[in-house]
């Protein structure tokens, strides 16, 4: 993912509300599965890490991204933004194209 594409996804995520919360039980298999399903449906999601979760949000973001085969767009404070490209041809989010060298 290029920096331009990442910046575009960050701008889209700014207006989004978190659709998942990770609490004191940290990351459970059920959470991971639900996050994976949401990524398949939406492509871009925001996750909130609650105060009672003792895990580092950056580490949680990497673990979730590995398990769901997605990419970490950003981690700010206790908010995580993940992106996973849609499987079908009609993608919901059009990323800016990579610059062509001439």
Features:
3 helices; globular; 36% helix; four-stranded mixed beta sheet; Translation Initiation Factor IF3; 102 residues; alpha+beta; single chain
Task: Walk me through what this model shows.
The mean pLDDT is 85. The chain has one domain: YhbY-like (Translation Initiation Factor IF3). A hairpin with a 2-residue loop joins strand 3 and strand 4. It has helices spanning 3-13, 29-42, 57-68, and strands at 20-22, 44-49, 71-76, 79-83. The protein is an alpha+beta fold. The longest helix has 14 residues, at 29-42. Helices cover 36% and strands 20% of the residues. A four-stranded mixed sheet has the order 1-2-4-3, with helices on both faces.
Helix content: 25-40%
Q: List the uncertain runs.
A: none
Q: List the total number of helices.
A: 3
User: Overall 3D geometry?
Assistant: globular
Q: How far is the first residue's CA from the last residue's CA? A: 20 Å
> Which fold name corresponds to the CATH topology?
Translation Initiation Factor IF3
Radius of gyration: 14 Å
How many domain modules? 1
Q: Major beta sheet, specifics? A: 4 strands, mixed
Mean pLDDT: 85
- Decide which structural class fits the backbone: alpha+beta
Arrangement of strands in the largest sheet: 1-2-4-3
CATH architecture: 2-Layer Sandwich
Instruction: Quote the beta fraction.
Output: 15-25%
């Amino acid at each position: 993912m290029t920096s331009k594409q990442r910046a575009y996804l960050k701008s889209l995520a700014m207006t989004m509300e978190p659709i998942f919360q990770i609490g004191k039980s940290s990351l459970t298999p059920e959470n991971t599965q639900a996050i994976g399903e949401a990524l398949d449906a939406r492509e871009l999601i925001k996750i909130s890490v609650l105060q009672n979760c003792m895990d580092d949000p950056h580490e949680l973001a990497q673990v979730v991204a590995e398990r769901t085969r997605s990419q970490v767009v950003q981690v700010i404070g206790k908010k995580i933004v993940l992106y996973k490209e849609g499987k079908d041809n009609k993608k919901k989010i059009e990323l800016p194209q990579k610059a062509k060298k001439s």
